[in-house]
Design goal:
Elements (H helix, E strand, L loop, with lengths): L3 H10 L4 E5 L2 E5 H17 L7 E5 L4 H12 L3 E4 L6 H11 L3 E4 L15 E3 L3 H6 L15 E7 L7 E6 H15 L7 E3 L7 H4 L1 H6 L3 E4 L7 H11 L2 E5 L1 H14 L6 E6 L6 H11 L3 E7 L2 E8 L1 H5 L6 H5 L4 E2 L3 E6 L12 E7 L10 H7 E2 L2 E10 L5 E6 L4 E3 L2 E3 L1 H9 L4 E11 L3 E10 L7 H9 L10 E4 L13 H12 L1
Length: 505
């Protein structure tokens, strides 16, 4: 079944209900949302977009993000959401690798992509998109559960992103598990999009469309704590997804302004490590509004959940252990912890987290080697390390990959290292994360200068900005005579992190 049928059905039963809002302003109701998306879908078909073709969305948060997304699905095509913060070269690579036939772009974003962009661009603020929205609407193309719906690019340790194949069936499974395992959804609710719609926040739109909820994009297009608090007061009840660092900033803003998060019914958090003290403080100030989830692009938002009651509980004798976990398996998956060969380990032992079930991806896009490494005997090998207790609570012990999570966004050190190693003044480099109260982690580069060179941090910054997204560049450069290595020549990143800890104390 095509996911877009949910929009069609909601429009048929709740057509006059407000659907898309920009700030407090209602942009359109569900009848208008459906008509606009169906018209753009027809225009895509007229342009030669066939079922299974890939269409990219390189957009900032905007009500038309959902119009473009549903238009792609109605046409039977595959959405390729691209993080609007990526560098033009990174974006161009994803467009090329996915074989995207065209891309929807926010006003002002397309101009920065440059001539290397391999596909036509449709500016959603321009006359071309307006004309598409006036086409004669069409019905959704039939799709099967195994047909691709969303091609999500998640950076890999090889320095190149991998495309996660997310099907209609996966997204339906994830969406239907949400009201069971995460949070009930009611027609009077609103979904607030302050986190990027190209990621988890956008995935949560689906169940809120099916239930006829409002979809609220902040007027700023992003996360401003004062604006979020104001929208909660004006438009609540609202639900939203946040990275842990966003909760820290929201808590600080609420405390400073004497507020308690009125109107923010549910805040789902995930995408990075949540410090125990931060979530305790947030609950103490704003009450039982918080739910934790754990997922990956390969099993989107659907591995485990820690309910609002469990997040707020202070009576259970092990409440701190549970609050430090990521909860228990969601309804449609099995979760296990395995050894190096993927064999399940006993309760309490630490190993690699493994998942199987309906929301797990079938493969990576055109990458059989990565698929074979990640999917073993029906299990998704997450690459994360953790342990299960006797009650089924999963605690993350570490990340087996050296991913840095800053502001809820994954940053893979090798991407940064490869960019820096192209600078003539850099002989060797190793990138690690440093704990940050504001961002969760900061990127720090340990640099060995080339003989006779003394690279300037400002020059290295400029070099990175010409090659990778701004948010990936190092916050600090530490110049060292050599990097610590083991007997096999591998850099000992644990030693580098230890040095940062010692410097901090």
């Amino acid at each position: 079944m095509n996911l877009a049928l949910w929009l069609e059905r909601t429009a048929a039963t709740h057509g006059d209900s407000p659907a898309l809002l920009l700030g407090e302003r209602v942009v359109t109701d569900y009848a208008g949302f459906h008509a606009r998306a169906s018209a753009v879908a027809a225009a895509l078909t007229d342009r030669g977009i066939a079922p299974g073709d890939r269409v990219a969305i390189f957009m900032k948060n905007d009500p038309d993000y959902l119009v473009a997304l549903y238009a792609i699905w109605i046409a039977g095509a595959v959405a390729v959401p691209v993080n609007a913060k990526l560098h033009p070269r990174e974006t161009a690579w994803i467009l090329s690798d996915s074989g995207a036939a065209l891309a929807f772009v926010s006003p002002g974003l397309g101009g920065g992509l440059g001539p290397e962009t391999p596909v036509p661009l449709i500016d959603t603020g321009g006359a071309d998109f307006a004309a598409m929205a006036r086409a004669t609407p069409r019905a959704p193309v039939p799709r099967a559960p195994e047909d691709l719906a969303w091609l999500f690019y998640t950076s890999g340790t090889t320095g190149r992103p991998k495309g996660v194949c997310i099907t209609h069936g996966m997204l339906m499974s994830m969406s239907l598990a949400y009201p069971v395992d995460v949070d009930p959804v009611r027609p009077e609710d609103g979904a607030l999009y302050a986190a990027p719609m190209s990621h988890g926040a956008g995935l949560y739109a689906l169940i809120h469309v099916r239930m006829g909820c409002r979809h609220v994009v902040p007027a700023s297009g992003g996360f401003d704590p004062a604006e979020v608090l104001a929208l909660g007061r004006a438009l609540g009840p609202l639900s939203m997804f946040m990275a842990p660092t966003m909760i820290r900033r929201l808590t600080d803003a609420a405390r400073a302004s004497g507020q308690s998060g009125e109107g923010l019914r549910t805040i789902v958090y995930g995408g990075g490590p949540m410090y125990l003290a931060d979530i305790v403080e947030a609950v103490d100030l704003m009450g039982p509004r918080f739910v934790q989830i754990y997922g990956q692009g390969e099993c989107p938002m659907a591995i485990t959940a820690l309910s609002r009651a469990e997040v707020a509980d202070r009576a259970h004798p092990r409440w701190q252990d549970r609050l430090g976990s990521v909860g228990r398996a969601q309804s449609l998956v099995e979760v296990a912890v395995g050894d190096a060969h993927g064999r399940p380990l006993p309760v309490g032992e630490t190993g690699e987290i493994m998942v199987r079930g309906a929301p797990v991806m079938p493969c990576y896009w055109q990458n059989p080697a990565a698929t074979a490494k990640t999917l073993r005997d029906g299990w998704l090998m997450t690459g994360d390390v953790g342990r299960l207790d006797a009650d089924g609570y999963l605690t993350l012990a570490d990340r087996s990959k050296d991913v840095i999570i800053s502001g809820g966004t994954n940053i893979y050190p090798r991407e940064v290292e490869e960019a820096l190693l192209t600078h003539p003044g850099v002989h060797a480099v190793s990138v690690v994360g440093r704990p940050s109260a504001e961002w969760g982690e900061d990127v720090v580069a340990f640099v060995v200068a080339a003989p006779g060179q003394a690279p300037d941090p400002a020059a290295l910054d400029a070099h990175c900005l010409d090659r990778i997204a701004r948010f990936k560049r190092p916050k600090d450069y530490v110049f060292v005579p050599d990097l610590p290595r083991n007997n096999y020549g591998k850099v000992l990143k644990t030693e580098l992190r230890k040095r940062l800890e010692e410097d901090a104390t």
